[in-house]
């Protein structure tokens, strides 16, 4: 687990020792490092080749857990692990990082600095997906910010400084909101509220206990630890994400009123959601994305669309809903509306673009709206029938994986022709199929995957999300289905203008040569995976099924046992308050006068009825 994070950092340190004029040595060393990472993840963990580290698809909880003391005075641990939510994204990160490095051969300026920053970025991305301590998670979240800023600002296009600063400020704003929410949650958390079994389920670090050891030994140590902290006079705070999830669902420590009649949990959810929505990105926090994509070099656009956007969705499903379920329930319409608005706005904006890369960037805003929508539908359908939300969450997760493949492929295909003709004006293209038939064939596969064509990776996630939202709101489901038509519109129009037609109308027509071997090595895996995931979606679903089923069931139980009784109690309290409100005697008399003919007449004589 530590190698997933620190191997790229070690490779970056090694590359820093290579002379800067040895560009090909630096490139091949960096590519080798990313391929080793992908090999470790794929053959060591995804395939059942090693019982110690391979991923068990039948296990719902965390696997390969590492928990070591880091800052004991504040209960901050070096806490790593993955489950069916994070592991598919770890594999996607390793894959896209290797392919994007293959696409980096066109980088000629400051190759050494580029490769070092690229590997530091990979460290941050891996750290986010495997960190289970909130403090550690936040550190890796921030680690990604600086290398991405320089990768856009130094190696980007003509407006690279503007795009890099805009990306930095938007992401930093979201990070500040996240930090406020983290501090709110930490200083209101209390491990004393958890039972020994809940401490075990949270993998709370216990002295003298190996997490992979005997369960009875772990439970006995947890019981002893619980007795110790129960005697403490002050709260025992924690950054443990799993423990915070237990507290959010099995205690009322985050339900206290904070500001303007809203609970701490409500404000924490809002702050965290905004921070993650900026990364998704969702409307109205999306404006940094088109500029960053347009100015970023092709491989960085592949990383940005294929991996970084997924961190927003991952944060919502990993942190927002499990830790703040009460706020998630109450704000379901807000979340779903943001998802649908992002889908529709992104699609219309993509239709309006004449810049090929900007069109693909806005398509990401639209496609990631499905993710937000799928994660937001649960509260209305979970009572008695959690199947719809289960479908929505799995659809959102599949959409993140499918979009990671298709969007990285689309940005790469745009980059291939940009490297040849040095422009992206859709109105100046045309006839590329006649000049580059192999390239065009693979480009159409990738773009049709983004379109959501059945049989390709973009269809499954979108279909599941639209189906899941039907029980929540038929109107939102219809709107989500309508976006498919808009998506087909801008994708087919782009294909017509770029690849079909009689002739190419732009400059540098002589440079339109067929795709080369290096580019084929990047495009072919993306095309194969786009078809494989579309035809055999179980290859992805089987890794996430157990974990998502368990999380849905936990929140379904919380809804039935905690949220619904709480709503009923609040309703009863409101009715009781209304009954004793000022003037109730007069209201009751007026009501009795209206109903006087419906009841027997009574009178009081000498104190008797």
Describe this structure as you would to a colleague:
With 609 residues, the chain is mainly α. The chain has two domains: 1-189 and 237-330, no CATH class; 336-568, no CATH class. Helices cover 69% and strands 3% of the residues. It is built from 25 helices and four strands. The chain has helices at 2-15, 23-46, 87-102, 111-130, 134-143, 145-155, 160-188, 196-201, 215-230, 241-250, 264-279, 288-295, 298-323, 325-330, 332-351, 356-376, 378-381, 387-421, 432-435, 437-451, 457-469, 474-499, 517-535, 538-579, 584-594; strands at residues 63-71, 76-82, 257-259, 262-263. The strands form two sheets. It has a two-stranded antiparallel sheet. It has a two-stranded antiparallel ribbon with strand order 3-4. Helix 16 crosses helix 21 (457-469). The radius of gyration is 27 Å and the shape is globular. It is a multi-pass membrane protein. This is Proton-translocating NADH-quinone oxidoreductase, chain M. GO terms for molecular function: NADH dehydrogenase (ubiquinone) activity; NADH dehydrogenase activity; ubiquinone binding. InterPro entries: NADH4_N, NADH_Q_OxRdtase_chainM/4, NADH_UbQ_OxRdtase, ND/Mrp_TM. Residues 131-190, 257-480 form the NADH:quinone oxidoreductase/Mrp antiporter transmembrane domain.
